Amino acid sequence: MFQRILLSSDGTMTNLLEEISRESLCARKFFEDVGAADFDIPELELCAGQLLWRRTVTLQGNLSGINYLYAESLIAPGKLDEKFSDMLLKTKAPIGKMWDLFQVETYKSLVEWGEEPAGNTAKYFSISEDEALLFRTYRVFSRGKPVMRITEKFPRNWFRNVQFSPKDLFGEKLSAIN
Question: Within 13 Å of residue 53, how many CA atoms lie on the same side as its CB?
Fold first, then answer.
């Protein structure tokens, strides 16, 4: 059930994970780059040469140091409020917390979900590379424009007592989409 909630939620993952973990979370940045896009990114309606912000973070417990979630984001900074962008770039605040702080109206559209081998991402969770990660990718819209594409991942082994498959979660909708 918990997997279903995490994967299908269109709310802010930060708040949900804080409630579950019973600790506040911060974004630990591992990679961040703002520069010209090398190619067109139709999902963000960006053309090569336009400004693109790439960001890789974990949502980490402030007290425990546990990484609860790994996220890769593509952000179109030119479509965001300048103060929002500056604060997000300069602080350790998770995107979800910044949306709340700046009262940014967003709509999220789920693009893809499922599971995959952890591979290189395993190091963020102290698991083996062949263990499974659950993931979801979604687009974020604000003021009617696509502003972000976010992929979030977390270890499947945290949910040992739950049988999971995307078909269980979305039934025939998954077959119709794919």
Answer: 17
pLDDT in tens, 146-168: 999 999 998 888 755 444 343 34
Q: Where are the alpha helices (DSSP H) in the chain?
A: 2-8, 13-21, 82-90, 95-102, 166-170, 172-177
Domain that holds residue 170: 2-177
- Six-digit token pair at 72? 């890769």
Query: What does the pLDDT read at residue 16?
Result: 76
Q: What is the pLDDT of residues 86-140, one digit of tens each?
A: 887 787 777 777 777 777 787 889 899 899 999 999 999 989 999 999 999 999 9
Q: What stretch of H or E contains 57?
A: strand 51-61
Contact 60, 66 (CB under 8 A): yes
The Cα–Cα gap between 127 and 118 comes to 8
Q: How wide is the angle at C-alpha 95 spanned by C-alphas 93 and 99, nearest 5°?
A: 105
Strand, helix or coil at 175?
Answer: helix
Query: The domain that contains 126 carries what CATH number?
Result: 3.40.1410.10
Number of structural domains in the chain: 1
